[in-house]
Design goal:
single chain, mainly alpha
């Protein structure tokens, strides 16, 4: 008995029929992978992308498979975090979360490195890889990537801030200071509050350490303008002002 076919009713069934008719056509496996991925059926999607790569050898499809693999890891990590939150005393759940975080980070570094080799002009990808290497305490490698990523004006500020943080980890404070002075010009409170605040705080710390209290006071003031409760900025500013005889202008205002 012949199968009754109604094309268009089920895109998944249509693609599966096309694959049966022409198993050497890599595009149909890829299209089916795309469809399944949109539906959140990641394991099945990965299977189709893998098959498409085996048939056609297209590196774009391989990257899609790698993206799905990372999505699956992130999804599993999300489930593990939820399980941990339900029982904070469950040490096994906490260990499982940490293990998945390490696995995801290792996979991201491996996959992003491969992508970056294939797409050396993709500076945003270099920034993302730099973030992962920084988290993996590979500060020197991260710094090299952040230097390159700063060539893209759209991400220049973040790249310079991360470059400075890498230099701080490498105990290169003068290099860090130079990058932070450039980075802070790229941020404003309205659009980049977190980066603006962190940048000014780090500048305050560096200038305070160098005994340049005028600049330290200025940057801590900028921090408090953005976020009054940010770390110990208020305490540090107060200490500087007390050491310099207090804020005379405020004393002159009486009991406002």
């Amino acid at each position: 008995q012949n199968e009754v076919i109604t094309p268009g009713v089920s895109p998944e069934a249509d693609l599966k029929r096309l694959i049966r008719k022409d198993p050497a056509n890599k595009d149909n496996y890829q299209k089916l992978g795309d469809l399944l991925r949109k539906e959140g059926r990641l394991e099945e999607s990965l299977e189709q992308y893998t098959k498409s790569f085996e048939v056609g050898g297209d590196v774009v499809v391989r990257e899609q498979a790698e993206e799905v693999r990372l999505e699956m890891l992130r999804k599993n990590l999300g489930f593990a975090i939820e399980a941990k939150q339900k029982d904070a005393s469950d040490t096994q759940a906490a260990e499982h979360v940490e293990a998945l975080k390490k696995e995801l980070l290792a996979q991201e570094i491996e996959i992003f490195s491969r992508w970056s080799e294939r797409r050396p002009q993709d500076l945003k990808l270099k920034l993302e890889l730099g973030h992962r290497l920084f988290r993996d305490t590979k500060f020197q490698l991260a710094a090299q990537l952040f230097q390159q990523a700063a060539g893209d004006v759209r991400i220049e500020g973040v790249a310079l801030l991360m470059l400075a943080k890498s230099f701080l980890q490498l105990k290169q404070n003068s290099l860090a200071l130079r990058q932070l002075e450039k980075a802070v010009e790229k941020f404003n409170i309205a659009e980049h509050k977190d980066n603006y605040t962190e940048c000014n705080y780090l500048l305050g710390r560096l200038y305070e350490s160098a005994k340049d209290l005028d600049k330290a006071e200025s940057h801590y003031t900028d921090v408090l303008t953005a976020d009054f409760g940010y770390r110990d900025a208020h305490a540090r500013l107060t200490k500087i002002q007390e050491e310099r005889g207090g804020d005379k202008a405020m004393h002159d205002l009486g009991d406002l």
